[in-house]
Design brief:
The complex is a heterodimer.
Chain A: E1 2-13, E2 16-27, E3 31-35, H1 42-49, E4 57-62, E5 65-66, H2 71-76, E6 78-81, H3 93-103, H4 108-121, H5 137-148, E7 155-159, H6 167-184, E8 187-192, E9 203-208, E10 211-217, H7 218-225, H8 230-238
Parallel strand pairs in A: 3-8, 3-9, 6-7, 7-8
Antiparallel strand pairs in A: 1-2, 1-4, 4-5, 9-10
Helix pairs in contact in A: 3-4, 3-5, 4-5, 7-8
Chain B: H1 3-23, H2 25-49, H3 64-94, H4 96-101, H5 107-132, H6 142-169, H7 176-189, H8 197-203, H9 205-213, H10 215-227, H11 233-253, H12 260-264
Helix pairs in contact in B: 1-5, 2-3, 2-5, 3-5, 3-6, 3-10, 5-6, 6-10, 6-11, 8-9, 10-11
Classes of the chains: A alpha/beta, B mainly alpha.
């Protein structure tokens, strides 16, 4: 079963067309990298998948549940890390996680236990009682990922999660997410414009100016386009230098 | 929507509002000081220049301080509602609104929970003010403090729903200066909070008409009557009708298919 299926999704803001007939799938337990330059439409796509925007044209299915028809059931399966940080800076890391857990209907005891478990897994348990205002950018991102995992989602959406992090921080975060994907079988859609975040066994969707211009396993993109690397293939597909 | 899920979400939203409120001490302090400044300075000055005839629900001549306290209680709810509305615009700009709106619950419920939580958090300060006002000889019947509770809740919900509607139409925090100048201050001053309607009529029939139609006046009168163990049916009906209208409009404003958010676009 597909964790996520996007079918002919289009969206515009007034006369500005942002997405045009976007279609792709993310298989259960797979890591899918959504590659696109700034302004390619990645964040709009995330807003449509999560129901922040209403998809007038096309379909979004999460584990075969149509987002438009049953948003609550679809959202219950998703964990989301948005491009903009969404932590409440006046609350501690633990309080942020428990707030999210409450929104997903988790009982208090379970919420407390799980917040410790997730923060521990992401190596920020020692900051559980610190206000998130006091955390570094990398720690905040890890708290956000821990929060997104609180309700046990089967699909994790990450919109440029490494933006603003230094290289070691980016690598550590990437490794954490890959571990999650492998150990828990969570499907991941990871939007980025950093080509080095693509691994050979990932699936890749290349989005350019609102259109999907390539989709498939990462190790096939370069051979299929007759170039030597993912970077060259991306440059060829998007016309970027 | 499951009931236990809905209640846990409400509990979570309420806890968050309380924590944020307690940690923003400057805001708490100013929310308390604002009506006291009005009571201690403005009302003291006005007492000597403004004569009040017997005006329901009062059964005799009353000091201006007595008259103005229900209006100041309503003012606290109004400013609290607008602060909450501003916080929603801030949350939207900062991104944390996304978290609330992507929770697996109907959007109307999430907005209603946020509205209710905001009112619950704002009420203790109003009660504190009402008790402090006793030092200015504003002493309604003790049972009045109980009777005024539903009036405060209804008025708080109506003003909060209005704030929610304003926040659904505001694209950025800078717009709030305009909201203060063109919405909040006229709403407050063109009401029965500071002067009885007959006094406004003396100043001009148009002003009296505006004040009579102003839903904030209805909130003030509902609170005033309840505090003195009287029931103002017309005010209650107006407050309830406005609450429903403002809330439905706010829900439409936050609707992903119709709202401003969806039309204006995100960050890329």
């Amino acid at each position: 079963m597909n964790a996520l299926a996007i079918e002919n999704l289009s969206h515009s803001f007034g006369s500005r067309q942002v997405l045009q007939n976007v279609s792709f799938t993310v298989a259960e337990g797979r890591m899918c990298i959504l590659l696109g330059r700034n302004g390619a439409g990645k964040t709009t796509l995330f807003s449509l998948i999560t129901g922040l925007y209403y998809a007038r044209t096309g379909l979004v299915r999460v584990f075969d549940m149509a987002m438009q028809a049953n948003p609550s059931a679809a959202l219950a399966q998703m964990g989301v890390v948005f491009q903009l940080p969404t932590l409440d800076l006046d609350l501690t890391a633990g309080e942020n996680l428990r707030y999210h857990a409450a929104l997903h209907g988790l009982p208090t005891d379970l919420s407390k236990a799980r917040s410790r478990e997730e923060l521990s897994r992401l190596e920020v348990l020692d900051r559980i009682d610190d206000r998130t205002r006091a955390l570094s950018g990398g720690q905040r991102r890890r708290v956000e990922i821990a929060r997104a995992l609180m309700h046990g989602p089967r699909l994790l959406l990450l919109d440029e999660p490494t933006t603003g992090l230094d290289v070691p921080g980016r690598r550590a975060l990437e490794q954490h997410v890959r571990d999650l994907c492998r150990e828990r079988g969570i499907a991941v859609l990871w939007a980025t414009h950093f080509l080095e975040e693509v691994a050979a066994d990932d699936d890749v969707v290349v989005l350019d100016r609102g259109r999907v211009c390539w989709t498939g396993p990462a190790d096939r993109i370069a051979p299929e386009l007759g170039v030597g690397s993912v970077a060259e293939a991306f440059a060829l597909l998007t016309g970027s230098p | 929507m499951k009931v236990d899920h809905a209640l846990r979400a409400l509990d979570g939203i309420l806890r968050r509002e309380m924590l944020r409120s307690l940690r923003q001490r400057a805001r708490l302090f100013s929310a308390m000081v604002r009506p006291l400044v009005w009571l201690a300075i403005f009302a003291a000055g006005f007492r000597s220049v403004l004569g009040l005839s017997i005006t329901p629900p009062y059964q005799t001549y009353v000091l201006y301080e007595v008259y103005v306290v229900p209006g100041l209680a309503a003012m606290m709810l109004l400013f609290h509602a607008m602060a909450s509305s501003l916080a929603m615009v801030y949350d939207r700009e900062m991104g944390s609104m996304r978290l609330l709106l992507t929770a697996p619950l109907p959007r109307w419920y999430l907005l209603a929970a946020r509205l209710l939580a905001s009112v619950i958090v704002g009420l203790p300060l109003v009660y504190l003010f009402l008790f402090v006002a006793r030092f200015w000889d504003v002493r309604p019947p003790i049972l009045g403090y109980v009777a005024v509770f539903p009036a405060l809740v209804l008025s708080g919900l109506m003003l909060g729903a209005f704030g929610l509607l304003v926040s659904s139409m505001s694209t950025q925090m800078e717009n709030f200066a305009g909201v203060m100048n063109f919405v909040i201050f006229p709403m407050f001053f063109a009401s029965t909070a500071l002067y009885p309607i007959w006094r406004l009529a003396e100043a001009g029939p148009l002003l009296a008409t505006i004040a009579a139609w102003n839903p904030f006046s209805s909130a003030v009168e509902l609170i005033r009557f309840a505090l003195y163990l009287r029931f103002d049916m017309v005010s209650m009906l107006v407050v309830v009708a406005c609450l429903v209208a403002f809330f439905l409009a706010a829900v439409a404003g936050y609707d992903p298919g119709r709202g401003l958010w969806s039309r204006r676009g995100g960050e890329g």
